[in-house]
């Protein structure tokens, strides 16, 4: 069967600053919360990996852009490191940081690759983290200033902006599961942060539109589908609650301009609802995104059988080790006994992407949608002939592209696909063990080696289909 995509469909891949740049102490960059976390808790990351060198993209960006061009990319999703632009979060702008991204964006545009730029992919400047991070309202003001600096410095080059990457995932892991910085297990703080992030998002959208440029602004969400584990009404209820706290708390304000009533009620009942100020809610209601970015890896299955509170991500790469996410009395995510799983116990389920695209479409029919991340992590080494035969990645991407093709045929406005990731990179808790890239990174030499999937994708981009 032939899968032909609409003209102008964006073929790209994605990265995030902390995961590829390295040069964490160069040219005036400040520390982010992740730099400090990796230093202070080396035991939490595979082989005590740090982002200090990452893929050395800060020095090798020109070659990386040339590789993207050679692979036929027409788009590239990346993030700006806040601590490179404003090293201490609130003080002077670091002109060397601004110059780095201006050079990078210019090279991308010159190569015919449209940058899609996320302002915040979790690398909060450390002084702000130390002062309370997103629990401190001052962080919102600092972010708005940082956003303005970026819009003004790069607005002539960047036409696609996203405020936050996966606010639900960073909130959950930072404040509920205690797996990411600031390593908290505090529901009240989690809800406060989740609220602050979405109000900050709304204010940033208003700021951007107020500046009146010709760019578009959105947000990147991991709208992870949540299915009931069985057809019992109790599991259906558990799935509804999980969806409310995991997804709708973040999607509804961004797309509908309001927080979901059932989640508000749940938090109020449990005395963890932050003060919802009228001016915040007016701000959330006033303006909205020009597009939505969706990241999709795997779905969840919710069971009501949540007798304990337990969290854990698979960081071994052994597919028999389960991920755990269970909140006593509310819901527990369980494995799909019939599912296909990656080595990190993430289910491969392309129809889940269809469900979330349909959902985004239902929220705001016609709103442009970009698939801003989708990919598969694996342990990989170079073959004897110096390549990586990642047929499973080709299969993974092809199956998801088929779903996107079907969604477009059914009237959903999907504009582009950014495979996670352009290159193997620093995977938050898995260090350099879990590889996602089209480009294999030789950790000894930093040499980039296109995998078999990279050549396959080049052909897809060239033919605008497969
Ligand atoms: C997404 C993040 O949640 O998942 C990426 O936006 C991340 O930054 C990707 O790398 C894969 O997750 P992990 O933990 O396997 O690297």
TrEMBL record:
One of its GO terms (biological process) is cellulose catabolic process. It is an enzyme of class 3 (hydrolase). It holds the Pfam family Glyco_hydro_1. InterPro entries: GH, Glyco_hydro_1, Glyco_hydro_1_AS, Glyco_hydro_1_beta-glucosidase. It catalyses: Hydrolysis of terminal, non-reducing beta-D-glucosyl residues with release of beta-D-glucose. It comes from the Bacteria. One of its GO terms (cellular component) is cytosol. Keywords: Carbohydrate metabolism, Cellulose degradation, Glycosidase, Hydrolase, Plasmid, Polysaccharide degradation. GO terms for molecular function: beta-glucosidase activity. Belongs to the glycosyl hydrolase 1 family. This is Beta-glucosidase. It comes from Azospirillum thermophilum.
């Amino acid at each position: 069967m032939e899968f032909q995509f609409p003209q102008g469909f964006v073929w790209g891949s994605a990265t995030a600053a902390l995961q590829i740049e390295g040069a964490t102490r160069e040219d005036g960059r400040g520390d982010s919360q992740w730099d400090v976390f990796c230093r202070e808790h080396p035991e939490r990351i595979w082989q005590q990996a740090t982002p200090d060198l990452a893929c050395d993209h800060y020095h090798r960006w020109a070659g990386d852009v040339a590789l993207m061009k050679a692979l036929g990319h027409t788009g590239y999703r990346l993030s700006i490191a806040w601590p490179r632009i404003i090293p201490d979060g609130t003080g002077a702008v670091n002109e060397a940081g601004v110059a780095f991204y201006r050079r990078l964006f210019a090279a991308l545009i010159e190569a015919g690759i449209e940058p899609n730029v996320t302002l915040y992919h979790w690398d909060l400047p450390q002084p702000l983290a130390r002062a309370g991070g997103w629990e401190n309202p001052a962080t919102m003001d600092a972010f708005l200033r940082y956003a303005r600096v970026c819009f003004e410095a790069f607005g002539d080059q960047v036409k696609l902006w996203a405020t936050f990457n996966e606010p639900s995932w960073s909130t959950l892991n930072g404040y509920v599961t205690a797996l990411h910085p600031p390593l908290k297990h505090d529901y009240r703080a989690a809800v406060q942060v989740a609220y602050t992030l979405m109000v900050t998002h709304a204010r940033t959208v208003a700021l951007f539109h107020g500046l009146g440029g010709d760019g578009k602004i959105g947000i990147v969400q991991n709208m992870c589908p949540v299915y009931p584990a069985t057809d019992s009404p109790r599991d259906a209820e558990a799935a509804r609650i999980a969806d409310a706290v995991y997804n709708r708390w973040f999607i509804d304000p961004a797309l509908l301009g309001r927080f979901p009533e059932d989640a508000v009620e749940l938090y109020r009942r449990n005395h963890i609802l932050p003060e919802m100020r009228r001016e915040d809610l007016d701000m959330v209601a006033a303006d909205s995104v020009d597009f939505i970015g969706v990241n999709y890896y795997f779905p969840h299955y919710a069971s009501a059988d949540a007798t304990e509170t337990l969290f854990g991500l698979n960081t071994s790469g052994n597919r028999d080790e389960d991920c755990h996410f269970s909140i006593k009395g509310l819901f527990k995510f369980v494995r799909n006994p019939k599912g296909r799983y990656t080595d990190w116990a993430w289910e491969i389920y392309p129809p889940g992407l269809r469900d979330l695209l349909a959902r985004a479409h239902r929220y705001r029919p016609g709103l442009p949608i970009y698939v801003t991340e989708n990919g598969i992590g694996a342990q990989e080494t170079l073959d004897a002939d110096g390549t990586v035969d990642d047929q499973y990645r080709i299969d993974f991407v092809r199956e998801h592209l088929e779903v996107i093709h079907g969604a477009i045929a059914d009237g959903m406005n999907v504009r582009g696909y950014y495979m996670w990731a352009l290159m193997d990179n620093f995977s938050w808790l898995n260090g350099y063990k879990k590889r996602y890239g089209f480009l294999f990174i030789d950790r000894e030499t930093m040499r980039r080696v296109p995998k078999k999937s990279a050549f396959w994708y080049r052909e897809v981009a060239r033919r605008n289909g497969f």
